[in-house]
Amino acid sequence: MSLQSPHTSIRFALAQLDFLVGDIPGNTALMMAQAVHARDELKADAIIFPELSLTGYPPEDLLLRPSLERRVQAAVEQLKTIQGITLVFGLPEQRENGLHNAAWVIRDGQCLARYAKHQLPNHEVFDELRYFVAGTGATVFELHGMRIGLTICEDIWHSGPARAAKEAGAELLININASPFHVGKAAERLGVVGERACELDLPILYCNVVGGQDELVFDGGSFALQASGEVAMQAPLFSAGLHVVDVDVATRHISSSTQARLPDRHESIYQALVLALRDYVTKSGFKGVLLGLSGGIDSALTLAIACDALGASRVRAVMMPYHYTADISRNDAAEQATRLGVHYSSLPIVAMVEAFTNTLSETFAGLGADKTEENLQARSRGVLLMAISNKLGYLVLPTGNKSEMSVGYATLYGDMAGGFAVLKDVPKVEVFELCRWRNAQARAAGEADIVPQRVIDRPPSAELAPDQKDEDSLPPYPALDEILRRYIECDESAHDIIAAGFDAEQVNHVLRLVDISEHKRRQSAVGPRISRRGFGKDRRYPIVNGWKIGD
């Protein structure tokens, strides 16, 4: 079906929105409100929504619910009541041969076109083959004299679907997406989609979702490319909004006033963590967040992110000192809490640890002190934090980083207690860099450092024993993080890593720690993924196995 008009240009609004997975009525209401806004205020002819916008992405096993089809059909009927603007949106569509990841085009109550995604990703964090059947064939519809092709997300990373649309007569391509963030992903998308535009001589409108969903962060960054691959519109990352482009019907040239700057590495990571935390807390209905503030760098960065995400009024910090807690740690924690204006309290754990020790004294008779006594300190702190969480309705934030989670340098039911681990995919070296970056932003705004400089300068320590330092048990963090990156994100073997110049004994020790700590990671809180391979959906190793290091 086509919509003919003497239009010389078509105005599209790319709806880079934050949806709640599973909230089909709420997502539908949001789409309807934005469609009316695009029509009446922005004077748009069409509005483009992201992949699976009706359900949110990824809906996972909600797609298996028996009421899914009925709920989706009811939502589509509501969307059909919108008049005077064309809607392009994503939905799960049940067809005779199975469920499809689909895109529909509707206007004035009529369905103009339907498309089913061809390339179903089944790698990294994606498992679409579990739910969907792949589509075939191109879909092209006509709007105001222009023939427009449809593709969905992964389709654009392969030449076939876009080429099929071109061969079917498409003069412009729309690609709707739910593409999650990792460092450098925005530039990757521009490169891949730019190649597609150039090879097919097709202008492309790329609309991506924004928001946090469990461990995934969707960064938005929607854009429009000329047929030459030149960027005609770049929407900001990590921010919801409508972004307008005008496409000349005769020349297919795209014009737009939206030209956002892509953030650098540290800014993009920090913004991703802020967005992930804000959405997890808000969408889950927590009143605020709570964390143990130790005076160390991990908890300092977590506190800064929490305040930027939620505001200081929704953040509580608790210092829980013991005999080995240095005065400098107490002072630095109090100073940061004061700078940020969060609710701060100090709850000593000496009496708790002594009570546990006395209770266990008969059981432990004749046995020397070891890690057990250190873990009792961490677990006493976990008990306090969870009690406050239960009473106040605040989510506990574990403060461990990726380096620690990789090698098991964390205590089950202790410092691992909590619901959302903000730094779970952030290596220790990156933690230092992010603190420096955040302080630089504060200084540029004429404000005091967010993280006290002394916290950054001090050697990291768990302070569970006298004069304890992390590097007493672990290699220096720059070396450790690079070994971990090669092993976890690049799947390099011990042999490969040693051949790259790392000490053999150190490599074998680190890899063994990673392998034997899988049981801890399975019990750890979910946390936002910022790397190409985090701990969660895209790294699934058996807890019990006989694989030998070195292969």
UniProtKB/TrEMBL annotation:
Pathway: Cofactor biosynthesis; NAD(+) biosynthesis; NAD(+) from deamido-NAD(+) (L-Gln route): step 1/1. Keywords: ATP-binding, Ligase, NAD, Nucleotide-binding. InterPro entries: C-N_Hydrolase, C-N_Hydrolase_sf, Gln-dep_NAD_synthase, NAD/GMP_synthase, NAD_synthase, Rossmann-like_a/b/a_fold. The active site is at 51 (proton acceptor), 117 (for glutaminase activity), 153 (nucleophile). SUPFAM superfamilies: Adenine nucleotide alpha hydrolases-like, Carbon-nitrogen hydrolase. It catalyses: deamido-NAD(+) + L-glutamine + ATP + H2O = L-glutamate + AMP + diphosphate + NAD(+) + H(+). GO terms for molecular function: NAD+ synthase (glutamine-hydrolyzing) activity. PROSITE patterns: CN_HYDROLASE. It comes from the Bacteria. Deamido-NAD(+) binds at residues 375, 404, 520. In the C-terminal section; belongs to the NAD synthetase family. Belongs to the NAD synthetase family. Catalyzes the ATP-dependent amidation of deamido-NAD to form NAD. Uses L-glutamine as a nitrogen source. This is Glutamine-dependent NAD(+) synthetase. It comes from Paraperlucidibaca wandonensis.
